Amino acid sequence: MAEYIIRRTLQMIVVFFIFLVTSYLLFNAIPGNAFQNLLLNPELPPDAYERVLKTYGLDKPLMERVQLYVVNFFKGDFGYSYKYFPKTPIELIAERLPRTLMLFAIVNIVAFYTGFLVGKILAWKRGSKSETWITVTSVFSYTVFYPWFALMMLWFFGYKMGWFPIGKFLYPEKWYDAPWDSDVIFVLMIKFTAIISLFQFIAYLLTRGIESLTQRRNIRFGSLLVIFISSYIFWNYGDALTKKPYAADIAYHMILPVIVVTIVAFAGTALLTRTTMVEVIKEDYILTARAKGLSQKRIRDRHAARTALLPVVTSFIFTIVTIIDGSVLTETIFSWPGMGQLLLQSVLEEDIPVAMATFSFVGVFALIAHLVADISYSYLDPRIRIKSQG
Amino acid sequence: MSKKITQQEELQKQIRKDALRKNWKLFSQSKLGMIGLYIVCFFLFLALLQPFLFITGIWNPAIYDPVVGYDQIKAELLVIECPKEYPTEKYESYSDCPGPGEVNIKKLYMAPDLKVGEYYDTFIQPAPPSKTHLLGTDSLGRDIFSQIMEGSQVAFVLGLLSATLGVGISTILGTIAAFFGGRVDAYLMRQSDLILMLPSLPLLFIISAFAELKVWHLAVVLGVLGGLGGSVITIKSQALQVKVKPYVDSARITGGSKWQILFQHILPNVAPLALLFMVFSVTGAIASESVLSFLGLLNIDMSWGIMIYLSQTDGFIFSGLDFWWLILPAGLAVTFLAGGFYLVGRGLDEVFNPRLRKR
């Protein structure tokens, strides 16, 4: 196993090297460059454009630039952004990443949980009328044309009803005399959400072994109550009290995107859970459980659903990888200034250092996740033998 | 001798026919799969109907062409004067005046001699649905129904072409990776890692920046990217399960060559999964095309994504349901065709995977 991981890591480094060179060449294949609009300004001296190109090193031949970039990359130097000059790509990513993480962490947790719940019920109520209707609804939300759907929801809830703001992640008027950056608030909110979900997750794990269903439910409900009370105390005393209005502003802007993305995202999990669950129900040990006279709910939740969870969790790992990639459309439609917009803007404006940094961020993330998924697969499913992978 | 061979061939034909009939029976038992098939057939019918209407001359191309057609739709509007204060008896608020079929006299700069109570002849675009234009016209006077038909042609060509290409590539590469293992496998897996590492939407942006993408080009790009990426891994894991089956071993013992085993024994057994994958990836291809043309990055004359793009750039998407024929048909068409293919895929899944069946 250790040998496999080492060999795989070496391969990954080679792949990453190829990835870097390929994406650098791809960005350079786009016609024009980031400073071309200087040529359109008649007030600049004629040599300004060349001087700027020379300053940024864009006048060198392509191969030399690729070589320089890759060498500097492995030294940890990512250069400076062309568009936001004194900032480095790392600073930009550090500014944008919390916003994307906040939005999509909540969406993914909610979508995964509801999707698993719905899929479980779908498989169990097979052949009933409610199954058909839930399936049709989830297939609709799985295949709905996403930008169109998001715009319609934005029109209905944001414009017609006026319940939620249209776009942006805060009201600038409220933040004129704010003593903090919005990022400070974001980081606080992320920490808060992470601690809450961790607490609930631990409560879940601890109560898993309890046999009586009602007792288990009561304990879980109690832990939820503890969370509510402690978060009420947290937001009303001390340091967090002054940050509360700003956090509330951000949370208010987050509601509509979270709802829309959840509606679209939960269906994938639900349909996948249904398929795996339907297969699991055919297994012999479910028949044994039935013969033992266990209650339907118990068989569903403890015997079938737990086995059906495995493929769903691995698909969840891959969803986490595609968060940044998938956030491009959502953030464009809801004008949410996160990683997706940074990625899109840097590609469209040919801000090569920022684009390369975001691309390699996504790439490293994807590579590591694939390794983790492969290793966990080999533990879970002996049919996929790692030895055969060379 | 020859008689014997023809007998054997006939027997094989009979077996194939029976298998097809049995599979069709299984497929038709799944209600949702049949609904999906009906939806797909409906759009296929729409796609084929348009050229038929043009050739037989039922539709005049000058009026009904989805890209360059134009129809003047005459309307008589009653000239009125909007009140200064609201609410009045007729209008509740500022936005209700002028109502349908009316025009405010202050807006009539072009016809200064008209008075309140007279009728004003004009051409209105976008026109609401009528007998001549079943789904109305867009802001340039083009028939929406004809555009929907053109869009379904684009969707079918693109979806089927890219899915076939992608699944063809990934099936061959996946089975090769599973069969040969070792270095070939490692190379192919790292290659699909490389494709998966690139963020898909920005990558398509870059490609559309330096290459003018038409339908065919986009189909090839989507097919190759999809075929080299994640689906190789899935097909490979299926092929690994086929590879350890006893009939593969017996074929090897009886002296079958490597390629013979690969193409005659493993590939046909991976094919059902590949077909399933193909149907599901049509859904993805249709969605990708619509997203790209919605963002205005493709060099296509007309598609469903472009219809939504136009209704958004013309500012109709936030006008709500007053102009529903500009917003709803295109979006619903994308959704329904993608959903139809998905449901067909589910039906096929039940045919190929006995454990998913009801009984």
Concise summary:
The complex is a heterodimer of chains A (390) and B (359). Chain A has helices at residues 2-29, 48-55, 62-75, 89-124, 129-143, 146-160, 182-207, 213-236, 239-281, 284-292, 296-321, 323-333, 339-348, 352-380.
Task: Please describe what this structure looks like.
The complex is a heterodimer of chains A (390) and B (359). Chain A is an all-alpha fold. Chain A is built from 14 helices and no strands. Chain A has helices spanning 2-29, 48-55, 62-75, 89-124, 129-143, 146-160, 182-207, 213-236, 239-281, 284-292, 296-321, 323-333, 339-348, 352-380. The longest helix of chain A has 43 residues, at 239-281. By secondary structure, chain B is mainly alpha-helical. Chain B folds into two domains: 27-54 and 142-356, Orthogonal Bundle (MetI-like fold); 74-123, no CATH class. Chain B has a three-stranded mixed beta sheet, with no helix packed on it. In chain B, helix 1 packs across helix 12. The radius of gyration of chain B is 28 Å and the shape is elongated. The two termini of chain B are 45 Å apart. The model of chain B has no long low-confidence stretch (mean pLDDT 83). Chains A and B meet through helix 1, helix 5, helix 6, helix 9 and helix 12 of A and helix 5, helix 6, helix 8, helix 10 and helix 11 of B.
Search tags:
heterodimer; A: 390 residues; mainly alpha; 14 helices; 75% helix; B: 359 residues; MetI-like fold; 2 domains; 12 helices; elongated
